[in-house]
Structure formats: C-alpha cells, structure tokens
Design brief:
- The chain has 111 residues and is mostly helical.
- It has a single domain, classed as lambda repressor-like DNA-binding domains (434 Repressor (Amino-terminal Domain), Orthogonal Bundle), CATH 1.10.260.40.
- Helices cover 64% and strands 0% of the residues.
- The chain is globular, with a radius of gyration of 15 Å.
- The chain starts with 7 loop residues before the first helix and ends with a helix.
Amino acid sequence: MKTDTLTPEAREAALLEQLRQLLRGELSEGQVLRYLRREVLGMSQGDYARLVGISRRTLSDIERDAGNASMASMDRVFRPLGLRVGLLPRQPALLSRLVADDDEASAAHAR
C-alpha cells in the first residue's frame, strides 16, 4: 500500500479526470480501474482483488480489457471507488446532450 496518500480533494480530482477521459472514449474501464487502484488507492492487484472478493487473474483481465467479466464482477471492482457500471450512449453527441441536460437539471435544482 502507498504511504504518500492523496488528499480527499486530490483523490476526487483524479477520479473526475479519469471519468472525463472515459466518457470521451480516451480510456477504457480497465485503464481507469488500473489507474485508480494504483495511483489513488495505492494498492497492488493482489490486495485489491482480496478487498473486492475476486481473483487476481480476474482483476488483471479486467484491467487489460481482456476476457468477459460479469456485470457483478465489474460492479464489485468499482464499488470501493464509489462507482457502478451502467449504460451510456455510444454516440458522442447523445452523451454530450445527456450530460448537458443533467448539468441544467442540477443547476435548476440548486436554485
């Protein structure tokens, strides 16, 4: 485990940046998981696999975007990061509209 831990703000910033890149199609779910596990949590594959209750091999496959992990396994590996697996539109324009609509709804709710 890493000894130089990130502040909560830095951890959140790293998470948000990885998610932005994922939504833009620049990173895969496996790449995001690997980065967050190593850089944010500072955990080895073995330690993280034990934490989430899957084999190290399954975790490795997920991080390499290899194999066919079940939705249950995917949810399990992202849960400690405060994330869940879900459906997103494949079309970038539709995804942009979805995010923009959500931003507008959040702003209206805050008023």
